[in-house]
Amino acid sequence: VGFVPTMGALHKGHLSLVETAAKECETVVVSIYVNPTQFGRGEDFDRYPRNLQQDLSLLAAYPVGAVFAPTDSEMYPKGFDTWVQVGQIAEPWEGTCRPGHFRGVATVVLKLFNLVEPDIAYFGEKDYQQLLVVKQMVRDLNIPVEIRGCPTVREPDGLAMSSRNQYLSPDERRDALVLFQSERLAQQLVDSGETDAARITQAMRDHILRVPYAKIDYVAIVDPETLQEVSTVNRPVRAILAVRLGGTRLIDNMEITPKPV
Ligand code: AMP
Questions:
Q1: Distance between CA 177 and CA 100 in Å, rounded?
Q2: b/e sequence 89-118, b meaning 16+ C-beta within 10 Å
Q3: Which of 42, 90, 139, 174 is most buried, by CB atoms within 10 Å?
Q4: 66-106 tens-digit pLDDT
């Protein structure tokens, strides 16, 4: 059994996970659940796009054995009071910007694992820290599920696909390209011999801030396992970023590899 947990508003990123699962598993289960406990106060839980009928018709074209779309009272019945708290890997970056987010994620993912009992679960690298948090939880709690990370699917111009892209106005959609461009710039700088992570992240910031109304939550070059910032790019690292454009918060990341010597 292969399992693809989602919050719906499905796009080609989600569908690529379904395709990979279908290649490797006899049965694919997709969950669609906008998990309230991973949203903070003032975040976009209320306006998060929900369209179950459209999601189901998209999935109808794929070999999906079951779709699990529970209600809030099924997932969090009255009296619910147990939480999964992943440690250090959940603390920086998204953990700092969105306090409680990963507690909600880890808790709902463990519940979904227990309900679906998958052999393999598929997560996108798009949410890179989330992937590491889930792997840490599975390791630490001896959860009998294999976690597979799958590459980020992008729009033709490079913008990482996301349900939240629907929030973008036409101008913001155009300006959102600076996220991908800044990551590509990081790789180009490394290709041209730059190894200083501070200089690379500064160049990324400068590029993003060419959009005058962009607000950077973080831009960092980190170790791909620990998410600790690195000072020198002398091995494969990850460029990670979170940027707000108007009312929309976008995240993205990319592997940055030094040129072979
Ligand atoms: P979400 O519905 O945003 O919670 O995402 C559900 C799953 O799809 C997560 O594992 C995400 O990382 C993954 N995902 C979202 N966007 C993409 C993308 N553009 N490419 C690949 N996977 C994605």
A1: 29
A2: bbebbbbeebeebbbbbbbbbbbbbeebeb
A3: 90
A4: 999 999 999 999 999 999 999 999 999 999 999 999 999 99
- CB distance 126 to ligand 1 below 6 Å: yes
What ligand 1 atom has the least distance to the C-alpha of 160? Answer: 19
CB 20 within 8 A of CB 46: no
pLDDT tops 70 at residue 41: yes
C-alpha 153/C-alpha 259 separation (Å) is: 24
The C-alpha atoms of residue 57 and residue 53 are separated, in whole angstroms, by 6
**Catalytically annotated residues:** 14
Could you tell me if 32 and 69 are in contact, meaning their C-beta atoms sit under 8 angstroms apart?
A: yes
Distances (CA, A) of 219 to 55, 181, 189, 205: 33, 13, 15, 7
Q: Mean pLDDT for the chain? A: 98
Average pLDDT over residues 173-196: 98
